[in-house]
Amino acid sequence: MESVVIKRIPIETDLKNLISKKMFEDDSPILLEYLNAMNILNEKFQPMAILKECSLESTAGNSVLIGGHVYKSKILSHLLKDQQRIFLYLLTMGEMPADLTQIETYFVNLLKLPAMASAMKNLKKMVQLEQNFVKVGMVNPGLIQDWPIKGNQTIFETFGNAPQEIGVEMTTSCLMRPLYSSSGILFEDINHYCDCETCTIDACIGREALFCHTA
To answer: Does CATH place domain 4-198 in 3.40.109.40?
Structure first.
């Protein structure tokens, strides 16, 4: 299947939902800066993504063959063994506008991560509705124990030149540019898997479940 580009993914526009743990007075200067940053996010940022449906060709040991490319991870092999098709994805918040003041840049950066988590939830919801999945699971390189960040190499190889369409590139250290970009695999979650259970980043704004040592 060809890659599908989604040019605009909606994000949460209610500031209180994005910074629910922060309480400010209505006339607080900090709140006004947050409100301005929210306006900048809505006006100058366009979360985009690429999806590519792939057939799961085989799983054996710590190897998974997806779309003619081998992914090395025992956990990934276990999670996907009963799947017939999966969706590779790339998502990005895009580059920071160059015309922002230092203060605007600071507050926009504070909101970009929760905004990205909101965009990710909406991307999963799109796949769930279009594919009639009961639930969508997600797994990301670098966030499970035996699938390090260099797993991005295989994802980018599978996408070919498509990442250029949303302005995403991979660095020599397998990180992604722009900052606040994400990559991974979406699949129908029939076993109620949550990748948050295998991630030790406690402060993550997008956390949906506690870390579980036995996950």
So the answer is: yes
Residue 128's alpha-carbon distances to 2, 45, 102, 168, 206, in angstroms, are 19, 25, 39, 24, 18
Q: Residue 100: which of 21, 141, 44 has the closest Cα?
A: 44
Q: Give the integer Cα–Cα distance in Å for 210 and 167.
A: 33
Query: Which amino acid, 10?
Result: P
CA distances from 6 to 51, 89, 166, 170, 171 (A): 8, 11, 9, 19, 23
Write out the H or E segment, with its range, that includes residue 140.
none
The stretches of the chain forming alpha helices (DSSP H) are: 15-18, 29-44, 74-80, 102-131, 152-159
Nearest to 141 by CA among 185, 87, 77, 93: 185
180 φψ region: left (φ > 0), alpha (ψ -120 to 50), beta (else): left
Residue ranges covered by each domain of the chain: 4-198
Give the integer Cα–Cα distance in Å for 88 and 33. 36
Task: Output the pTM of the full model.
Answer: 0.85
Instruction: Please list the alpha-helical segments (H only) found in 95-203.
Output: 102-131, 152-159
The answer on pLDDT for 213 being more than 60 is: no
pLDDT digits (tens, 9 = 90+) for 107-120: 999 999 889 989 99
> Among 23-27, 60-64, 158-162, which is the least confidently predicted range?
23-27
pLDDT over 70 (residue 43): yes
Give the amino acid at 123.
L
